[in-house]
Amino acid sequence: MKFLDRLQPLALLVMRLALGAIMASHGYQKVLHLQQTAGFMANLGIPHWLAYVASFTEFLGGILILVGFFTRVAAFAICIDLVVAIWKAHWHNGLRGSPAGPGYEFPLAAAALAFALIFFGAGSIALDHILRGGSGFKRP
Fold first, then answer.
1. Backbone φ/ψ region at 102: left (φ over 0), alpha (ψ -120 to 50), beta
2. How many Cβ atoms sit within 10 Å of the Cβ of residue 133?
3. Which long-range contacts (CB under 8 A, 24 or more apart) does 110-113 make?
4. How far is CA 79 from each of CA 8, 54, 65, 82, 136, rounded to the nearest angstrom?
5. Beta bridge partners of 101
6. Scanning 22, 79, 96, 99, which has the fewest C-beta atoms within 10 Å of its C-beta?
7. Is 23 exposed, middle or buried (0-12, 13-18, 19+ CB in 10 A)?
8. Tell me: the pLDDT tens digits for 14-57?
9. Cα separation of 101 and 55, whole Å?
10. Exposed (0-12), middle (13-18) or buried (19+): which is 66, by Cβ within 10 Å?
């Protein structure tokens, strides 16, 4: 089991890369189509201006998580973004979805990744670790 403990930084890297890629690409589409995103969110009862906040949170937060910079802050913002998305856009369709639209299983999985990164941080294979002076090697 100690072998698996040594691989924890790799596991955090995989979590960051997966969540970061998902959120950056999802946010990029929202940033490209801000007016449509704002209209969609207004139809959900979310103030128009929060479409900009959500779009840039997903896009920039995803990039920050990808490189491991301000990971906990970005993960916290993304986790809130995804919880609101589940509540306002997906909850009524159930976990797996319905003919009316997609369910909340995918945003729930992404929110769980973000939640874990809030508490575990970026790990040692990240810009956060390098800037804090970590070398990536533990001395005996």
1. beta
2. 6
3. 110/19, 110/22, 110/23, 110/78, 110/82, 111/78, 111/79, 111/82, 111/83, 111/86, 113/15, 113/18, 113/19
4. 22, 11, 12, 5, 28
5. 98
6. 99
7. buried
8. 999 999 999 999 999 999 999 999 999 999 999 999 999 999 99
9. 20
10. buried
Instruction: Give the whole-angstrom CA distance, residue 24 versus residue 57.
Output: 9
Nearest to 79 by CA among 66, 62, 63: 62
Going from N- to C-terminal start, the domains of the chain cover 11-131
Residues 52 and 64: their CA atoms lie apart, in Å, by: 18
- CA dihedral (15, 103, 27, 8) in degrees, to 10, reads 0
